[in-house]
Amino acid sequence: MIKITLPDGSVREYEQGVTGHDIAMSISEGLARNVLSVKVNGEVWDSNRPISNDAAVQLLTWNDDEGKSTFWHSSAHLLAEALEELYPGVKFGIGPPIENGFYYDVDLGDKEFGEDDLEKVEQKMLELARNKNEFVRKDVSKADALKYFEEKGDEYKIELIQDLEDGKITFYEQGNFVDLCRGPHVPHTGVIKAIKLMNVAGAYWRGDENRKQLTRIYGVSFPKQKELKEHLERLEEAKKRDHRKLGKELELFTFSEKVGLGLPLWLPKGTILRERLENFMRRAQVKAGYDPVVSPHIGAKELYVTSGHYEKYGEDSFQPIKTPNENEEFLLKPMNCPHHCEIYKHKPRSYKDLPVRYAEFGTVYRYEQSGELHGLTRVRGFTQDDAHIFCRPDQVKEEFIKVIDLVLYVFKALGFKDYTAQVSLRDPENKAKYIGDDALWEKAEREIQEAADEKGLETVTELGEAAFYGPKLDFMVKDALGRKWQLGTIQVDYNLPQRFQLEYTGADNQKHRPVMIHRAPFGSMERFVAVLIEHCGGNFPLWLAPDQMAILPISEKYHEYAQEVFSKLGEKDIRGFVDDRDEKIGRKIRDAEVKKVPFMLIVGEKEQNEGRVSVRRHGQGDLGSMPLAEFVEHFQQASASDFN
RNA sequence: GCCGAGAUAGCUCAGGGGUAGAGCGCUUCCUUGGUAAGGAAGAGGUCGGGGGUUCAAAUCCCCUUCUUGGCUCCA
């Protein structure tokens, strides 16, 4: 007999060789039906795999993330089985579960796989699922594993097996399909009841753009049809919050082919929103001891040769601008830091002057690959809420922490709770991608982690995500459709001060080298606004809303009073418009609601006679009539409470 | 840049070899109104661009530009 400890701490005795399924059966038949896999001493196993020793066991169902992963991983195998039936000779790459579903990378030879094929494959999968084929685990030797896939002619699996250790290789078989796989899997294909293949995409084998591009088929599956339906409805809802859609509907920004791809045009309402954010940041920065600076949009090529940007990105950048006469070349600035370094250098610095903090809403231009452009989140011209802090080495951590405070303040003010703090380090396998010496990199990496730890920030570490001149602390946020974007970023940099020969005179009367901290709490105005739009679904906090109120006269007779209210509110910095169209009040209300205007002020005979306004709040309805002064007070309170 | 999908009126979209359609928006007129769409009339499109097939192309084929879902990249 062996002892099995369940998550609630209870211990039960079972025969040696008991399976997760058996354990579930001993609790209830219903549970046994729902068990997808089982966690044995922290490792996820098939629910039908025998347990031979005492163990801590957790039964995993659809309600556990790991249970879902098992389910989707098995769905990927089912997809592969369907593909093999429909397209004999297909070769397989990898087919993992992902956050919302699964995919399989396949080589279909000459077959052009389009979206029309998805439904056919989907039907085949459902057909195969109904066979309730068991997933059978088999240990195989490396030699046998290689032999199997050599005979099958699947070079991708062979490559994968070659990297595996002999003795630890397993195959899984369901129906006529055999795959290299470490598992685990659901008991049989029959539990997969609802399947939707979402889309096809090209994906490079092993993520290497120099290798063959395989066809990646994305799908999602569920144990119940209803759950699939709900999932698809959630996706539809999320699409309604897409900043590209709302940006158009609310007239915030637009693009023009004639202006150029990836070059956003800010419309008046979007510009107001953006300026309010900028002013908010300016005030916060004044408080935090930053000095504003301004630098031009271009800089001599030599500037970027010095900074290292030219060597690193010159080929993949907008090419230099040439002057008509002299042999001069200028680059559109891709970064503000070289300019700020030169500002730092305009006079000698004493250790007593540091830290110096230069802030600029600097517009930069980067040549992004055309396939990368995406609404406002990935563009070719954008404005960073940039600043560079020049400080002594002993001030780095303190300054870094102050910046973290600023970023957190900004996120809090805007109600961003769902972010990840990511420590972005060098790829240790590929140090040639970065400039600067190891010791300084290590020092910077240590300082970032320490600062984050001191702020009690929960961080994830990503290798290979550093900037080429230094490590970063990035604040990542997801958009409506779950795509991750980097917003705020803080970077410690020992390299640029060296390249620009920045100095200050220390207490010892010797020259010393300052350290630079690059930081942008929003990241860029464009991306930040995009994420903000999706975050609030276009219902901006009152203090940011482009139109804070709409004055809606009942009829033409009250236009004059409406104008009077409008200018009185303007004096109190409450912005909006008078809807003086020849429409009925119901219509005006509807239009203001659709445009997500926070306050609607209805004015007619009663209001005019008594100096009042009838107030309606977006999404809430009629708040009743009140004297204008009372509305101003109500507005100001509402505005302040929107500011977290 | 690569693989897939798409582009028809300002917006959202239908149509699919034989003289371009709807709803909303816009303009004009009627209506002067009380908390989510008042009525009528009208203007508006070389069906993204180029080439080909055809008696005839928005429609079929090829190329191209842009948009889009991914991949790679992201100072």
UniProtKB/TrEMBL annotation:
<comment type="subunit">
    <text>Homodimer.</text>
</comment>
<dbReference type="Pfam" id="PF03129">
    <property type="entry name" value="HGTP_anticodon"/>
</dbReference>
<dbReference type="InterPro" id="IPR036621">
    <property type="entry name" value="Anticodon-bd_dom_sf"/>
</dbReference>
<feature type="domain" description="Aminoacyl-transfer RNA synthetases class-II family profile">
    <location>
        <begin position="242"/>
        <end position="553"/>
    </location>
</feature>
<dbReference type="Pfam" id="PF00587">
    <property type="entry name" value="tRNA-synt_2b"/>
</dbReference>
<keyword id="KW-0067">ATP-binding</keyword>
<keyword id="KW-0175">Coiled coil</keyword>
<dbReference type="InterPro" id="IPR047246">
    <property type="entry name" value="ThrRS_anticodon"/>
</dbReference>
<dbReference type="Pfam" id="PF02824">
    <property type="entry name" value="TGS"/>
</dbReference>
<comment type="similarity">
    <text>Belongs to the class-II aminoacyl-tRNA synthetase family.</text>
</comment>
<dbReference type="InterPro" id="IPR006195">
    <property type="entry name" value="aa-tRNA-synth_II"/>
</dbReference>
<dbReference type="InterPro" id="IPR002314">
    <property type="entry name" value="aa-tRNA-synt_IIb"/>
</dbReference>
<keyword id="KW-0963">Cytoplasm</keyword>
<dbReference type="InterPro" id="IPR004095">
    <property type="entry name" value="TGS"/>
</dbReference>
<keyword id="KW-0820">tRNA-binding</keyword>
<dbReference type="InterPro" id="IPR012676">
    <property type="entry name" value="TGS-like"/>
</dbReference>
<feature type="domain" description="TGS">
    <location>
        <begin position="1"/>
        <end position="61"/>
    </location>
</feature>
<dbReference type="InterPro" id="IPR045864">
    <property type="entry name" value="aa-tRNA-synth_II/BPL/LPL"/>
</dbReference>
<protein>
    <recommendedName>
        <fullName>Threonine--tRNA ligase</fullName>
        <ecNumber>6.1.1.3</ecNumber>
    </recommendedName>
</protein>
<keyword id="KW-0694">RNA-binding</keyword>
<feature type="binding site">
    <location>
        <position position="337"/>
    </location>
    <ligand>
        <name>Zn(2+)</name>
    </ligand>
</feature>
<dbReference type="InterPro" id="IPR012947">
    <property type="entry name" value="tRNA_SAD"/>
</dbReference>
<dbReference type="InterPro" id="IPR002320">
    <property type="entry name" value="Thr-tRNA-ligase_IIa"/>
</dbReference>
<feature type="binding site">
    <location>
        <position position="388"/>
    </location>
    <ligand>
        <name>Zn(2+)</name>
    </ligand>
</feature>
<keyword id="KW-0862">Zinc</keyword>
<keyword id="KW-0648">Protein biosynthesis</keyword>
<keyword id="KW-0547">Nucleotide-binding</keyword>
<dbReference type="Pfam" id="PF07973">
    <property type="entry name" value="tRNA_SAD"/>
</dbReference>
<dbReference type="GO" id="GO:0006435">
    <property type="term" value="P:threonyl-tRNA aminoacylation"/>
</dbReference>
<dbReference type="InterPro" id="IPR033728">
    <property type="entry name" value="ThrRS_core"/>
</dbReference>
<feature type="binding site">
    <location>
        <position position="518"/>
    </location>
    <ligand>
        <name>Zn(2+)</name>
    </ligand>
</feature>
<keyword id="KW-0436">Ligase</keyword>
<dbReference type="GO" id="GO:0005524">
    <property type="term" value="F:ATP binding"/>
</dbReference>
<dbReference type="InterPro" id="IPR004154">
    <property type="entry name" value="Anticodon-bd"/>
</dbReference>
<dbReference type="GO" id="GO:0000049">
    <property type="term" value="F:tRNA binding"/>
</dbReference>
<keyword id="KW-0479">Metal-binding</keyword>
<dbReference type="InterPro" id="IPR012675">
    <property type="entry name" value="Beta-grasp_dom_sf"/>
</dbReference>
<dbReference type="GO" id="GO:0005737">
    <property type="term" value="C:cytoplasm"/>
</dbReference>
<keyword id="KW-0030">Aminoacyl-tRNA synthetase</keyword>
<dbReference type="GO" id="GO:0004829">
    <property type="term" value="F:threonine-tRNA ligase activity"/>
</dbReference>
<dbReference type="GO" id="GO:0046872">
    <property type="term" value="F:metal ion binding"/>
</dbReference>
<dbReference type="InterPro" id="IPR018163">
    <property type="entry name" value="Thr/Ala-tRNA-synth_IIc_edit"/>
</dbReference>
